[in-house]
Sequence to fold (547 residues):
Amino acid sequence: MSYDSVRMSEQMDALDPSIDEFIDRYNTITAALVLLGLNPARQTLFLFPGGMASRLKRATKAWDPAGPASQTFKYKELWLNLSTLLGGEARQLRMHKTPGGEYRDKGDRIIIADRVVSLLSVSPYVGFTTWCSLKGVDWFIFPWDWRRNVDDVATFFVDRFLPHFQGLVQAKCNNADPLADFSLIGHSAGGLVVNWILRNADPPGTLRKVITVAAPFYGYGHQLHRWFEGDDLLNEGGLFTDAMRRMISSVPGCYSWHFLPEDFYKAHQTDFNSDPYPLPKYPSTDFTTGDPVDTYDPQPPGQRYPTKPQTGFDSDELDKAKKLFDALTSPLSTAQAAKFVNIRGDTTADNTLNTTSWKLVPPISPSPIADTSVTPGDGTQPAWSTRDIGLFTQVPGNVLTVSGPDAAHMIIMNSPQTLAHVAAVLGIP
Amino acid sequence: MAKPVTDPVSSMTSEEAFEFVRKLQKAFPKTPRSKKELAALQKYLAKYKDAELRAAGSRVLSDLMQRPSRTIKADDFPPAPIAGPEPNVGPKPKARRAPKRTTSGTKPRGTRHRTKRR
Fold:
């Protein structure tokens, strides 16, 4: 079996305990409803965590290309605990591409997603899942490897996970079908995954709603910094800056977190300006001239991003990310638009980083990227980025805004306003 | 007297959380792996109150999840120039002032190249 086959098999096995917990919750609610003499319609809600919010575990030994088909591994948590922040451990998240284009994990030690991150007893989404349980919603958190492209994750979810999940639940819940009425909700980059499923996958027809919360449809400026600066919390005072840049550049998923392509902006400029949270000009500009610099078509050639020898930055991945952007922003059919709901956040602090300026490279250090303005948003994502511009035109009522301090990016899923919106959209009393 | 602004994400600023992490990184320059090293890490953490650790955890998580790890103030930047037509549909968001962060260490760490206000 190939690396990817073994990896996906291992990924599926890692999800089974969470499916068992879903089954336990499902049967508990069923028993309670029988006791109360109630028989309300059931619905399942799959939550896709934000980018970097899924916990990643790394195999303790390498995959063996000459090994048996049924290789199994033990795993240790890699992302995220305090050890991740120490000794440059986050370097182990690095990936490498085979000549055939397959992405493998560093040292061919398989990495899988398993549950949600927890750091110093803090974990996102606790408020959201507690609320779901109280409302009798059958919820499932689908952890995903945020280093990989969202189309890979979405395809795995629809083609492999959903049938497996459905079969296990039916077998242990008196043949109840958890997909008879189901919806998807994605936070942040998880919103890109559910967006891809809506537009490009072929999910079961019983998919009712696809909800994004604080999803960066049109990117944001911080990713540009990361190509050059790594991550302050992981760099360890500069000791591992180069290693972190290389790790980030090796991860294909990051390439689609950029600002939108300039041609898309130009084609929709009127719509961007008509929004309650407008984007009056292309957000990435040259430091000297102030002219737009397209993040997906960097000009002049070779003078914007690091070279491959410098940090591993991969122009081929940038081209692939542009195609992914096109797929994620393709026109919505009427039926798709009716199912699609975007929730965005505005903390009302007006301190979300917005536009950037870009010096020519080399040198790549100090960073050629500078933040040049702030705008309303959730503290991480500008409000102009977190809704689909086509949806806002087609079904403006399906674009909802959460305002106030609890609209902050990390906690917006737990906000009472968000929960009220989700309840209204899904008909939860 | 104005009430101090409470940040619902964490009582710790990005700068304070960064300092927490840097102290930890200096105390543990190697990734702890052995039982002895992990016990030393637990002992190190025990000098903090639970609330402090939770505040650090919340802020670090928030900053790692793609938020720039520094306090952003609205008046750090000049207003964005308007190049396109004025918005003509929908309500405009009201002009607002960013709440002042009152905790210490609100200066950017200076690790990032930034445009100065002129």
About this structure: Chain A touches chain B through 71 residues (CB under 8 Å).
